[in-house]
Amino acid sequence: MTTEEKIKDVLKSQVSPALASHGGFCTFVKFDEPTATAYVAMEGACGSCPFALETLRMMVEETVVSAIPEVKAVERA
């Protein structure tokens, strides 16, 4: 499984259910191998939420980085 596939899987199975409970979701945009950074789009209620950046850092990034060692950071696209 590629790193991109792993990221998509974690977003779908672990991140999306939590965000969906608040009317939001995030989608995979790209993975930059040289910087080990995954880029995601915060959408739905998360797209306009003033706390979206905090959610990205505290929930999305923490979940993805802990599940996939080759990912070092998650940024908003």
From TrEMBL:
PANTHER family: IRON-SULFUR CLUSTER SCAFFOLD PROTEIN NFU-RELATED. One of its GO terms (molecular function) is iron-sulfur cluster binding. InterPro entries: FSCA_dom_sf, NIF_FeS_clus_asmbl_NifU_C. Residues 7-75 form the NIF system FeS cluster assembly NifU C-terminal domain. This is Thioredoxin. Pfam families: NifU. GO terms for biological process: iron-sulfur cluster assembly.
